[in-house]
Amino acid sequence: MVLLVTALMAEAVPLIEYFKLKKDMGIHAYAVYRNSDIALIVSGVGKIRSAAALAYLCALYHVTEKDILMNIGFCGSGSRKHPLGTLLLINKITDMDTGKDYYPDVFCGRDFPKESLRCYSRAVREDDVSQGTDIFCDMESSGFIETAKKFVYAHNIVILKIISDYLEPHYLNQELLKNYIREHVPMVESIINELKHLNDSTCEFSFTEEEKKAFNDICRNLHFSSSMENMLLKEMKIAKLKGMEPLNILRPFMEIKACSKAEGKKLFEEIKQRSKLENV
Amino acid sequence: MFNTIYIEEKAYEYHITRQLLHKYVDSEVVTIRHYKDVFNRPKQNLAVQKRYPSLILAVKDGQFLYEGPVVCQSFDHPNFYYTSFLLNCVFDCEYCFLQGMYPSANIVAFVNVEDFKEAMKDLLHSRKKVFLAVSYDTDLIAFHNIIPYLQYFYDFFASHPDMLAEVRTKSANQAFYNDYQPLKNLIIAFTLAPDEIIKKYERHTPSLKSRINAVKAATARGFSVRICFDPVFADPEMEDAYKEFYHHVFTQIDPGSILDVGYGFFRMPVDFFKRIEKVRSSSLLYAKEYFVKGNVVSYPEPVMERIKTEHLEILEKYIKKEKIFTL
Ligand code: SF4
């Protein structure tokens, strides 16, 4: 699943339109929009709001390490190194209140410029920083990543910032901002696809639902202890990694119900024997 | 080419950093405060990082030299130490203990070589003679074209004959043997394995043939060469492969040109093993049953004894018994 966090509704609208997201009317604490694969939350401005909104989404959708968490928004730039409207992929975030640094692993978006970002608690203006320095500032990223790093792999945390101004936030034009996002949504989609591809290419072991169910049924029906469960799981894993069918080990025992732990133990030995034969 | 080069603020002033910045002008560079801020982050995916490794340039502080661990061979040297100029490796061996030791697959390179030399001098001062493994947490020779650490330490080793240094490698890179004169106190320890094992477990490493060629190049130039058959796997499917392999190795390499041989089975501290079992969830190697003795995961003693006896019988046809060190 892909979870998107934007601070403002203006940042969210082009994404909602492009990905055809529908408002989840069952959620009242936040504005949450979703389709089968993507959910977007509008957090409000500031790092605490971003952290809270992301935590809410992660808990709501039972996020796993392979899900993708993305913060999309605007940043101010202290220099004119990049033109306004440039999409930046962020590879370092410094929280300017705590001095703490955060590093997402950036493996996607090879062609996009990568920059470090400073996260402030209030809007930064030109006079606040030394003139012409290559600094990029926002107000959400450190809160976002502080939460994100608890849930997903470091490479599944993506912070995308579009340069909205050269530290003159009072001149911002809402329509122009929406257009900046609108222009970049296809790039956002390509980054998501790249990451999905990367995640799918790492082969992590798992059992199918059918295998899990068979295992759970047998352990329950035959009163296996937790150490017997672990041993059985290991035998099934070896069978599967050897390219065999782990259910073959279990099949003859699937309809049996043991009357006592002792009988279960006997059946366990039989399963082990069968597994040894299958796994040679 | 590295995905990103992270550089500690204080590492910028060192020669190695300047060289690398010059060499990798197109790399993304991120300045960091301490290498552990990047290296020790939670939830790094080692498999993905192995595919797109980043380099972290850091200034080592604290302890520079460590006592040799019990799972490693001392080759009968009483003062056995190891040091790490690099953490992690360009190769990707499935059995590598580093995956259980570090939370990251990114490579840390320490740039303050002079501080390492000072620590080595201090150790020599107190211990008089030292056996120092310098390529345990990495493969220095495979990394030689990126950072030529052996070049930086060559003069130091040349002027400190009481420090016997061992460089363990699977690399086929012959540049160092061609460019430098052998030193009596510098051992190049080549890890060799049957091609079946290399294909199965030693991803990105050179073939047996290329490694044998590197051994020949090193011995021809007069380097002191150790051959390591380590780790050996007690796998019934591999038994014949090992026997043929030993004969093959010593028909290709003149046994008389070899200093000695190291021999050891696949083994690993329990906590590393458990961590890797999770990280490499699809690995059959870590799914199998092993025997735990003390704090070390390996094969049952009788299995190891049987295989070792068979293997040593062959090895002793080529190498004198007292030159074969087993663990
Ligand atoms: S060569 Fe050595 S250090 Fe490198 S991955 Fe293989 S076992 Fe690990």
Description:
The complex is a heterodimer of chains A (280) and B (327). With 280 residues, chain A is an alpha/beta fold. Chain A has two domains: 2-202, Nucleoside phosphorylase domain (Rossmann fold), CATH 3.40.50.1580; 209-275, no CATH class. Chain A is built from eight helices and ten strands. Chain A has helices at residues 9-18, 47-60, 141-151, 174-201, 209-221, 226-241, 247-250, 261-278, and strands at residues 2-6, 22-23, 31-34, 38-42, 68-77, 87-95, 101-102, 114-119, 136-138, 157-165. In chain A, strands 5-9-8-6-10 form a five-stranded mixed barrel. In chain A, β2 and β3 (31-34) form a beta hairpin. In chain A, α1 (9-18) packs across α4, α2 runs parallel beside α3 (141-151) and α6 (226-241) runs parallel beside α8. The longest helix of chain A has 28 residues, at 174-201. The two termini of chain A are 39 Å apart. The model of chain A has no long low-confidence stretch (mean pLDDT 92). Chain B has 327 residues and is an alpha/beta fold. Chain B has one domain (4-326): pyruvate-formate lyase- activating enzyme. In chain B, 37% of the residues lie in helices and 23% in strands. Chain B has helices at 15-23, 35-39, 46-51, 98-101, 113-127, 149-159, 175-179, 195-201, 208-220, 239-252, 270-279, 284-287, 301-318, and strands at residues 4-8, 28-32, 55-58, 65-67, 80-83, 86-87, 92-93, 107-110, 130-133, 163-169, 186-191, 202-203, 224-232, 260-265, 268-269, 291-293, 296-298, 324-326. Chain B has an eight-stranded mixed beta sheet with strand order 4-5-9-10-11-13-14-18, with helices on one face. A five-stranded mixed beta sheet of chain B has the order 2-1-3-8-6. In chain B, strands 15-17-16 form a three-stranded antiparallel beta sheet. The model of chain B has no long low-confidence stretch (mean pLDDT 95). Chain A binds chain B through residues 65, 91-92, 101, 103, 105-107, 114, 116, 149-150, 152-155, 198, 202-206, 234, 237-238, 241-242, and chain B through 3-4, 6, 28, 30-33, 37-38, 41-45, 47-49, 52, 54, 281-284, 287-289. The complex binds iron/sulfur cluster.
